[in-house]
Amino acid sequence: MPQLIPIVDPADPRVEPYRDIRERDLVGRRGLFVAEGTVVLEKLVESATHRADSLLIADKRADALAPLLARLPADTPVYLAAPGVLDAVAGFPLHRGVLAIGRRGSEPSADALLGGTPPPPRDVLLLCGIANHDNIGGIFRNAAAFGVGAVLLDADCCDPLYRKAIRVSVGAALTVPFARLGRGEDALALLARHGIEAVALSPAGTAPLLDWRPAPRSAVLLGAEGPGLAPTLMARARTLRIAMAAGFDSLNVATTSGIVLHHLATARAGGA
Fold first, then answer.
1. CATH number of the domain at 110-269, out of 3.40.640.10, 3.20.20.70, 3.30.470.20, 3.40.1280.10?
2. C-alpha distance from residue 253 to each of 29, 129, 165 (Å)
3. What pLDDT digit, counting tens, does each position of 65-116 carry?
């Protein structure tokens, strides 16, 4: 069981990494990230890739969290603070009362991730230009819910380990393997080398989603709301559309991912 360390002064240097979270999120954390809430902390403790450097929790939460804290390495500092002190450190009211500073594990190359330890990932998401942290978090949550084996992000996607993205993903960003493509890297050629069929989602897709029967290994391509996927990518992939009511052809990209991945999971369960 880690040692519980009381913090009574918001200026205590031991909790400096937690200070003014929102502002510091904007400039990056040099290989560190913030995990917020009990469910997210559970995912961090379970992660085979990332680890907790320290915890800062409301003192009234310590007893309830004892079983989870017992799973941490004994040398992990766990700081306890009264709610007022906790809020002063974080810079905003922290209703959940649970924070952790996580340390990123090594991120594999996209090629290594797709090759994988046998068996390699069967189904993959390729995200292009998705810069909204809520959408990234929602997509990772859906990826975990429907068993996606890997997520690839192009150079213009935002960071899945940004605090808000982790929170919206309910910790899935800490458990679903991901890799970032280099700028200009040919994602479709990479997928083809690994025998993965690419399908691209667009309101202008040539075939309805319900007609799609996935290949043994499939990649679903999703683009940012508004611009969508680049025409050069669309021209090289099978394109699919989601049927909608007349006069409306737009869905939030995270919602789209949930619909498509449910279809994919259902097809897999049926033997596709």
1. 3.40.1280.10
2. 27, 11, 14
3. 999 999 999 999 999 999 999 999 998 888 789 999 999 999 899 999 999 8
